[in-house]
Amino acid sequence: MDIEAAIRAHGSVAGACCWDLGAHFGIYTVGMALAVGPTGRVFAFEPDPVSFARCKRHIQMNGLSWVRAFNAAASDAEGTAQLIVSNGLGDSTSHLKYEEETLPIPGSTITIALVSLDTLVDRKEVDPPNFIKVDVEGHAAKALAGARRSIQRMRPTLVISFHSRSELDGSRLALEPLGYSAFESNGAELTWADCLYRTAILRCSS
Q: What is the C-alpha to C-alpha distance for residues 200 and 188, in angstroms, rounded to an integer?
C-alpha cells in the first residue's frame, strides 16, 4: 500500500487528521503520525487484540502522543461481530465475514467490538478526517457507510485496498455519488472495475 503516494496526491498532511482503518501492527499508523506531526491527529482501528497490542506498543515506542488507537473494527453500526482468525491471532488475514462466506468451525473466531465512525465524531471521541487509509479485508463498504456523514462533510482523500467484489461495489455506492474517482499511485485514473483486488487512491473532484 503506497501511503506516501496517496499523501502526495492529497498534498501536505501536516497538522491534519488521519484515520487508519485496519491498523494491524501500526506501520502505517506510525508513518501517518510522523507525516501529520504533533499538531495533527491519527486515529487507528484494529480489532484483533494481538495486532492491537503490537500497534499500541509501536505508538508508545515512538512517543506519538497525538495518536489514539481503538481495539475495534469500523463498521456501519455499533455492536459486536465474529472476527475470523483461522490463521491465528495477529495474522494479517483475520477478517470479518465476507458476504458469501460461512463462519468456520467454532474456535476459529473471536468476538470483537464494532464502532461507527460518524458516531465517534458526534461524541467528539475522534476528529473528522482529512485522509483515510482502509485495509479491512472485505469490510470497507460497511466502514465507509458508518462514516458517510464525515466523508460527505470533509471530502478526505482515501487509499483503499479492495479484497472482494462486494467490498468494491459497496464502496463505489458510497463514494461515487460524492464525486470520488479512483487513481493509481502514479496519478493515472482508474475505472472502478480496475480497482478490484488492488489498492487505489480515491479523490473527490467536487
A: 10
What are the residue ranges spanned by the domains of the chain?
A: 3-204
pTM for the model: 0.94
CA distance 53 to 71: 9
Bridge partners of 111?
82
- Could you give the strand order of the β-sheet that contains 73-75, starting from the edge strand earlier in sequence? 73-75, 109-116, 79-84, 95-96
One pLDDT digit (tens) per residue for the chain, 206 residues: 678 888 888 888 999 999 999 999 999 999 999 999 999 999 999 999 999 999 999 999 999 999 999 999 999 999 999 999 987 888 888 888 887 767 666 668 999 999 999 999 999 999 999 999 999 999 999 999 999 999 999 999 999 999 999 999 999 999 999 999 999 999 999 999 999 999 999 999 87
- Contact (CB, 8 A) for 138 and 113: no
157 closest CA partner among 56, 14, 19: 19
For helices 3-10 and 27-36, the axis angle rounded to 10 degrees is: 30
φ, ψ (nearest 5 deg) of residue 166? -65, -35
- Indicate the SS3 state at residue 56: helix
* Sign of CA pseudo-dihedral 116, 161, 194, 203: positive
Please give the CATH topology (third level) of the domain spanning 3-204.
Rossmann fold (3.40.50)
Q: Which three cell numbers stand for residue 70?
A: 481503538
